[in-house]
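User: Okay, second chain of the day. Same drill as before: sequence in, structure tokens out.
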Amino acid sequence: MYTVFYIFIWLLAWLPLRVLYVFSDFFYLIIYYIVGYRKKTARKNIEKSFPEKSKKELRRIERHFFRYFCDLFVETFYEMHMSEKEVLRRIDFGNIDPLLEQLSKGKSVLAMTSHYGNWEWGSALSLLLPKESPLYGIYKRLNNKRFDQLMIDLRSIFRGKTIEAHHLFRTMVKMRKEGENGVFGMISDQSPWVGNIHQWLTLLHQDTPVLDGTEQLAKKFDYPVVYIHIDRVKRGYYKCECIPIAFEPKLTTELEITTKYFEILEQKIQAAPEYWLWTHNRWKHSHLRKIKK
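Assistant: Same drill. Structure tokens below.
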């Protein structure tokens, strides 16, 4: 089954992106109106996140999200045959000087990002970094080994590298000893495993368990932290924004870095909510906060 799927996707990815968007429009009709893929989860998340909006506005966000979700799917696999020239034409990385300046000082950088916009194309940031300081995408291994390898391959197309989350700390220690540095891309808006919930913040009016691992690593290694935001300009085109969070992490207070990250993320979501991944059940453990209170 995987082999058939891979061959189909591999062949499909050779089509021009404008043609793939026709498939995306068709997938949207199937996924949203017929299959209803995770529609209940997305609807619940959107309604609780925007209690001030009317039902009409909420349904508009919902429809626009699922339409973009299908675009994201075809864009991800289009990357299989995408050239470096094309991806840099489709993503404006703007001003990354603050990030490059920190690398020039011999420090690695922790780049917090999120499931917003096309985070997969964001791996092309590595094309603009010094070759000796590549982008390392931090990921959690998928249960299916073949799909896991496929995603690793996709994230490595534009000179980037990947590190499995369980090996991150060990790798960072090794790199420091060997005098190597790089940019560690951390998707930080995921819901922690229930046994690893220690910190809570309010996100979009809801008690939200948060991952503070990036903050802990930043303070441990004294590495600067930036937020990499990828916003959609129009279909097939994006703009990347590099926002400094903490260049002296050891001087920050507890949860200051994590709080600032979520404040920026909330602002971006409120500005254009349809580009965030609403199908993820991020608030499934919110009841635990009430128990602990």
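The CA atoms of residues 32 and 39 lie 7 Å apart.

User: Thanks, on to the next one.
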